[in-house]
Amino acid sequence: MIRLIITDMDGTLLHNDKSMPKDIFRLIEQLQQRHIHFAAASGRQYASLRESFQQYASQMHFIAENGAVIADGSDNSIIETHPLPPCDIGEMIRLARSLPDTEIVVCCPTVAYYESDSPILQANIAPYYHARKRVKDLTAIQEDIAKLAVLNIRGTAQYVYPHFSSFAKHLSIVVSSFEWMDIMMPNVHKGIGVKALQQRLHIRKDETMAFGDFMNDYQLLQEATYSYAMKNALPQIKQIANYETKYTNEEDGVIQTIKEVLDL
After folding, report:
1. What span, in angstroms and rounded, lies between the C-alpha atoms of 154 and 162?
2. Are 105 and 129 in contact (CB under 8 A)?
3. Are 126 and 47 in contact (CB under 8 A)?
4. Taking the model in full, what pTM does it have?
5. What is the pLDDT of residues 84-102, one digit of tens each?
6. Which of 12, 179, 212, 229 has its CA 20 to 30 A from that of 246?
């Protein structure tokens, strides 16, 4: 019996233009009627995820910032965070500043901070960070920092990741999409968010269904017996998932699969 369903957002639940499938809110209602919990897992911040699901956010849980922030939508509370060590943050911010065509966003549990007024950053930050604020100096931020998000539209795997190799020895550095790279505490990923929700809701791995498409969904899928790689997923994700959807994200593969499996 499935009691918890968790889906990635970009490339999985959302269409390529970032639009939400039209049947998602009706599906959330149907799942609630069956006492099945529904959660979104994403590199996006919690505030952005709540905005995406509007009034239905109160019926959900959220794994935000690729697992660095876990939240309960029913009372709008942060359940768990994993802040970065302050000693590394300033050095990484200065390194990102020095790289060509590279921008950095400092992600706190409830708000994201940025320095640049670059049109490229503005266009790319808006879909992921609804609660955001521009500041003069990111190194002066005194709050707990859950994640650093680095942007390079030429590709972070090639142009950013190699420069951060020394930090990868003691931090988790994940290329979360072609243009974004996330830096978090070691062993912080969507999988620990799944475990946190399973423990909180008293749900087992074999009662969990999960959907993903990219490398930052790797551990997410490993924590669910009913793990589905999207038809459009990376080959590495298809290899570790137990199932593959018949449809892509453009074809509403998450919704189609849930309806078929649960006979909705």
Report:
1. 14
2. yes
3. no
4. 0.86
5. 989 899 999 999 999 999 9
6. 179
